[in-house]
Specification:
By secondary structure, the protein is of the alpha+beta class. It has 24 helices and five strands.
């Protein structure tokens, strides 16, 4: 398995959980919308839709912590610093608890003020206030779960995420039926159902940190408070997009009420509830790009970054085209779920909006990959501009211009127009960045000259068997000598890699019947040789093992002892389903 295959494998391994996270929110919103439309009143769908702006704002705050933590912890992981990664995890949890608790209190104490912010009219305000109070009871677990689900992926806990997502959907259906259909609790029942489900989901996720064996765990004393501002600075551009989307909802709601009335608002709200389901693949891909690109940047691995973007713009785009075709073919079915009577005006509006939104899906993938990659590269100024254009101006301006001319259709057309406008922000930024049109793949990816190392200063080898191990040892020794390392140190470097890669082949590759990946890399930078061994086998920490070995038994684990004695420094981490051993030797 080569580096390209491993990048693709890792991308699609992480993707399903991210897709389900997005889809879960849309499925739950869709369930609430269907129950509201069928068992309460069609206007209740609009009530939920009005509150979506506040939900977007909460997601914006949450994404500050998640985005900043993903990038910073990815950098620390890429450089092999597990302790600092734990410090970022602890900082993330602390900040989330503080903001989540405050948000809950504000929602419970000031629902009328929030309803006014949402743009509610007098007829809908009472129901909206009731919904706000009930929903607020589940804000804290909702925000914490959004953080934990990303960190649990690093811990190879995708199954736990799947269980949590499945449980949340099942319980949401059950609670909606019981509270709304059986007890006739109206929108209060819908809100309570969502809050209870948020708590159930959170409990399923958080129990791993009490009863499992996490590498990342909470320690108040280890919180990296010094990284707080950096976390917010890195996370804020991505969060600005979510905040702008919330602001866009407020403005569009007013435009829609003016030119399409409550039927138009209900149509938009219906798509808002299920639209995330349509673009779950795109949103998930963006999140994975941010996560993997941050780690690759920490490793200064140009090749892995190129392969990651290539996978998105080849296999990823093909899948979005398939999704588009499927959604187009089933659009009437989706609209009918919310509005069974196909003769109504609201059904007509919703179908128009669904179709125009759907044809934008491939471009949405491009925009999300671009924005998340820019965030991983810490191109904060560009991401800020990107967020404001994509989240607000690219859609609101066309809607404001076209609505008086074409009515509701003008508002719906603003979505594909806005996506096209957003997609050109990245290439414009690249031209501004280099002050000319980029000439190479590296330049389009914004790699500066000091990023990573030149090709002649790195040696990358994929190892599949013991014969490859021997060949690797010879190649490494020659490579080290060519870069000014004395013969004895070069031999030590080769021995280190040979011992550790042979250990993976003999024990990791034979542990099960799966085909595994093993890469050995030697990089020379700043008068130091960095040896990195990466595999996807069962977890094994040679650094920790060496610290617990019986020094009197000189014959046991002699290879590991030798490596740890020769290395100037060594560290190990097992995250994202990969074991990474980093050994450093000075010239």
């Amino acid at each position: 398995m080569n580096n390209s295959s491993m990048t693709s494998k890792l991308f699609f391994k992480l993707l399903p959980v991210q897709i389900l996270i997005v889809a879960m929110g849309s499925i739950n919103s869709m369930i609430d919308g269907v129950v509201a439309g069928r068992f309460i009143a069609a206007e209740s769908v609009g009530v939920i839709g009005l509150f979506m702006g506040i939900v977007s704002t909460l997601n914006a705050i949450s994404s500050v912590f998640l985005g900043g933590s993903s990038v910073i912890s990815g950098r620390y992981m890429g450089s092999g610093d597990l302790e600092k990664t734990r410090g970022i995890f602890s900082l993330n949890v602390t900040l989330t608890i503080m903001v989540g608790a405050i948000s809950t209190a504000v929602g419970i104490l000031f629902p009328g003020y929030i309803a006014d912010i949402c743009g509610s009219n007098a007829e809908l305000k009472g129901e909206l206030m009731t919904y706000i109070v009930g929903y607020s009871l589940g804000i804290l677990p909702m925000m914490l779960s959004q953080q934990l689900v990303a960190f649990l992926q690093l811990e190879r806990q995708s199954r736990r995420n799947y269980i949590g997502i499945g449980a949340m959907i099942v319980f949401n259906i059950a609670f909606d039926i019981v509270f709304v259909s059986y007890f006739n609790m109206g929108v209060w029942g819908l809100a309570l159902s969502t809050s209870f489900c948020n708590w159930i989901y959170f409990i399923i996720l958080v129990t791993y940190y009490f009863f499992g064996k996490p590498q990342l765990y909470y320690e108040f004393k280890k919180i990296l408070w010094k990284d707080t501002w950096n976390l917010i600075k890195i996370g804020s551009p991505g969060a600005l997009l979510v905040f702008c989307l919330g602001l866009r909802d407020f403005v569009l709601n007013r435009i829609i009420l003016t030119y399409a009335g409550e039927a138009g608002l209900a149509a938009k709200s219906a798509l808002g509830m299920i639209g995330g389901f349509f673009i779950a693949f795109c949103l998930g891909a963006g999140a994975v790009v941010r996560m993997l690109a941050s780690i690759n940047i920490g490793e200064e691995d140009k090749d892995a970054i190129k392969e990651l973007i290539k996978v998105c713009f080849t296999k990823g785009l093909v899948l979005t085209v398939i999704i588009t075709v499927v959604v187009l073919a089933t659009s009437k079915l989706f609209v009918g779920i919310f509005f069974p009577d196909s003769t109504t005006l609201v059904y007509h509006y919703a179908l128009q909006y669904f179709i125009l939104y759907d044809i934008s899906i491939p471009l949405i993938l491009i925009v999300l990959v671009e924005s998340n990659y820019l965030q991983a590269m810490e191109q904060n100024a560009c991401v800020n501009i990107f967020s404001m254009v994509d989240g607000f101006f690219s859609v609101v301006v066309p809607a404001a211009i076209l609505a008086p001319i074409f009515g509701p259709m003008g508002i719906w057309l603003a979505t594909p127009i806005g996506i096209v406008i957003s997609s050109i922000v990245y290439p414009i930024n690249a031209i501004v960045f280099w002050k000319r049109i980029p000439k190479t793949w590296d330049e389009w990816l914004l790699f500066k000259k000091d990023f990573g190392v030149e090709d002649n200063n790195r040696l990358v080898m994929t190892i599949e068997n013991t014969e490859d191990v021997s060949n690797t040892s010879v190649a490494v020794q020659g490579f080290c000598e060519e870069h000014g390392m004395d013969r004895k140190k070069a031999m030590y470097s080769a021995l280190c890699l040979e011992e550790m890669t042979r250990n993976v082949i003999e024990h990791g590759f034979t542990h099960d019947s799966k085909k595994h990946y093993l890469e050995a890399r030697v990089v020379f930078k700043d008068d130091e040789a960095v040896l990195r061994i990466k595999d996807d086998c069962i977890s094994f920490d040679p650094v920790d093992m060496s610290s617990h070995m019986n020094s009197e038994d000189v014959t046991k684990n002699i290879g590991i002892k030798m490596v740890m004695r020769l290395a100037d420094s060594a560290n190990y981490q097992s995250l994202l389903g990969l074991n990474v051993l980093t050994i450093k030797l000075h010239k």
